[in-house]
Amino acid sequence: MQELLTILLLVGSGTTAGVLFAVALSVVPAFAALPPERYVETHKLVGRRFDHVMPAVVLASTLIGAWQATEAADTTARTLFGTAAAFGLAVSLVSQLGNVPINRTVKRLPAGPVPDGWDDPRRRWRAWHLLRTSCAVAALVLNASAVVLATA
């Protein structure tokens, strides 16, 4: 069972870091290059699948990592797993408190031209996204380090 959870932890934290990194490299610059109407339309399309899958992946990885922190025999591995779980929690918090409210606002906009006085959220969304991406990459590095240390 321990081996299965370790695999799930690495797959989950790797998936999280990979998806967020890919979005940072390709989707964020694409959003910035689009005129406002196209940005709104594209944002609505891009987020549809992520919104249903990624919260569960992040939460599962975080919980497994927290559990690994309590079970690791080595103090350093416990610390690494625990810190990685904290970064996983940070990904969730940044997403729910930063990116998700912006996503909801964008999804409520009607098709067509943006309303007069529209507050373009792309810079704020990018900043929140880069923060959660950094946290996800840190979690992956720490989880992988803990696994290597625990199996050495």
In terms of per-residue confidence, which ranges show pLDDT below 50 for 5 or more consecutive residues? none
Rg over alpha carbons: 18 Å
What is the overall shape? elongated
Count of runs of 4 or more consecutive helical residues: 4
Helix coverage percent: over 70%
What's the structural domain tally?
1
Strand content: under 5%
Mean model confidence by pLDDT: 95
Gap between N and C termini, in Å?
Answer: 19 Å
| Biggest sheet descriptor | none
List how many beta strands DSSP finds: 0
Structural class estimated from helices and strands: mainly alpha
What is the N-to-C succession of helices and strands?
Answer: HHHH
What attributes does this structure have?
elongated; 152 residues
Task: Give a written overview of the molecule.
This protein is mainly α and 152 residues long. The protein has one domain (2-151). It has four helices and no strands. It has helices at residues 2-33, 36-71, 75-108, 122-151. Helix 1 runs antiparallel to helix 2. It is elongated. The mean pLDDT is 95.
